[in-house]
Amino acid sequence: MKQTYRSRFAFVMAWVWLVFVAFNVWDLIVRYNGKASLVALAVLGALTALVYAVALRPATVFTEAGLVGRNPLRTTFLPWAAIEDVTVSHAITVQHGDDRVLRLWTPMSSARERARAQRRGAATEQRGRFKTEPTLPRAEQAAAAAFAGKTHADWVGEQIRERAESARRRGEEAAQARTSWSYDAIGLLVVAVALVVAAIVA
């Protein structure tokens, strides 16, 4: 079963951008007026290729066989047993064979999110003799305790570490990482460059 983690904000904003672009492309085609329309189309195309590469495409995917890190221009597959260590700062960094490092583009944690997580994890001071806050159900208390002081990136990093340790305990083979180029993103960037060249030459 696959689990996909990405920046929700970036994903939503990227789709908002695509709706905006679709409307503007339709408008430019209907009201085509020569080079000005071509230039506008080229700009929209270049920006859309960039939005796809940095906002829509990046994702961290858990599969049964291993970890898939989709970055803007490349996709890396790591078998769980090949993962040696995981560190989390503003991004998740996965260390694997021969001191190689995979930096995941998503999820990331901003300084604001980390500060908010630390405040959430700090014990709240009780004032007065009686509790004024409602008592949470046990399931919600357990969830709050699990996430106390942690960002989403911290939690995903822990899941990667746990799956890697579990795979090693089962004696799975630590196969080599496989990296491939993202032909969809590269193709979009090539089309965007072609549009810009066409707008300049026309």
Notable traits:
alpha+beta; globular; 202 residues; 6 helices; five-stranded antiparallel β-sheet
Walk me through what this model shows.
With 202 residues, this protein is α+β, with helices and mostly antiparallel strands. Helix content is 51%, strand content 19%. It contains six helices and eight strands; from the N terminus they run βααββββββαααβα. The strands form two sheets. The protein has a five-stranded antiparallel sheet with strand order 1-2-3-4-8, with helices on one face. The radius of gyration is 23 Å and the shape is globular. The mean pLDDT is 85. It comes from Nonomuraea composti. Residues 115-137 are annotated as: Disordered. The chain crosses the membrane at residues 9-30, 36-55, 181-201. It holds the Pfam family bPH_6. Keywords: Membrane, Transmembrane, Transmembrane helix.
What order do the helices and strands follow? EHHEEEEEEHHHEH
Class based on secondary structure composition and strand pairing: alpha+beta
Strand content: 15-25%
Biggest sheet layout: 5 strands, antiparallel
Distance between the termini: 50 Å
Q: Number of helix segments?
A: 6
| Strand runs, count | 8
Shape, per Cα inertia axes: globular
Name the strands of the widest sheet in spatial order.
1-2-3-4-8
Mean pLDDT: 85
Helical content band = 40-55%
Q: What is the strand and helix layout of this fold?
A:
Blueprint: E1 3-5, H1 8-30, H2 35-56, E2 59-62, E3 66-70, E4 74-79, E5 83-88, E6 92-96, E7 100-104, H3 111-121, H4 138-147, H5 152-169, E8 178-181, H6 183-201
Antiparallel strand pairs: 1-2, 2-3, 3-4, 4-8, 5-6, 6-7
